[in-house]
Amino acid sequence: MLASIRYRACLARNGYVSKSGTREIVVDIYQFGGQRATVRTAIRVRAEDFAQGKVQASNPDYDLHNRSIRRLIRRLMEHEDELEATGIECTPQKVKSAYLHHQIRSATLREWISSVIEPSKRKNSTKASYHSLLKCLEDYQANLTIRDICHDFIERWENWMRTQKQLKENTIIGKLKALKCLINEAIKRDVISIDQNPFKSYQIPEMTSREESLSFVELKKLINVKLDDPILDHIRDAFLFCCFTGIRWGDFKALTSKSLQGKALVIDQQKTGRLVRIPIDTIFWGKALELIDKYVTIESLSRIGGNSFCNTKLREVAQLAGVKTHCHWHLSRHTCATLLNERGLRMQEIQHILGHQKQETTEKHYAQTAFEQVKKSVKKAFKP
């Protein structure tokens, strides 16, 4: 038979010591001659303010901290009792696991993302999309938990995004897909069962895939428009550089002198991790290289404001140039793909320049142009 489980508060043995000299208090769960486990409290004090398992009166918040520690120990003991009542042999690790599992099940969505998503190895862009999802959900209903999300909730939330927030269809679909990923994570961690999955009976609509792009005529308008504002001029040049190379916003902002290797632009794509080499001395008649020369260094060219700011200024440039197509930064990538297709490059070659993992993704970017070319060819073939 295992020895009884004991609990005590202590300073983390190998914990991080802050600049102010504080360390975190943890609750040590242990058995004599057996296992040990620790549960963090998020309470930080100086070593001289802690003795005999208690925060001393020299700390101004000693009473509040001690009550929090006692409350945590009581909860751990309650989980121990629950395990024993079910006939499970208790160990410190099992008590800790039961406590953490309960914390996750009762956590708000914000706490869930903070404790589960943030420490994960997901990409920063993925984590950012979850925080965007969280803001949208909290705008609709505060203090949500994973277990609050049911089929009816999703229907109401989707309708609210469409009617009240007036979000675009693809934006709504993107948020629904992100929420579905969160639900799947909760199922994997046994927070909810598969039978409780609200997406079992909820069909997420398909995204519309029509991609706009600029024509050569519109691109020339952007090139030729005279801009007195140096900020607009810089943003126009940066956008044109992306049109001439097809690189994404994040990759453009990360450009350094090391990105230029001879006459090639070498990009280690942030989104896919694929290495892309673009012959910028020949693609679009070397226009991208001319823009680098204008700003002396590639770092100077890529040193512009944030995405939202640049999109706003880009639309000002488009208006001054008489371009009616709705301009946003990712349009440069669609434009590059479309114009390369019009110049006769093969699909595999365009796929390499854009760094797409799948050929189908490349096809989406110039499907509209390909159809227009088919119409012209058919019209010419059947000309009366």
From TrEMBL:
Family listed: Belongs to the 'phage' integrase family.
BP-aspect Gene Ontology terms: DNA integration; DNA recombination
Domain Tyr recombinase, first and last residues per copy: 209-379
Protein name: Site-specific recombinase XerD
UniProt entry keywords in alphabetical sequence: Coiled coil, DNA recombination, DNA-binding
Pfam families the record matches: Phage_int_SAM_5, Phage_integrase
Single GO term (MF): DNA binding
Superkingdom assignment: Bacteria
Coiled coil: 62-89
Transmembrane segments: none
Gene3D superfamilies for this protein: 1.10.150.130, Intergrase catalytic core
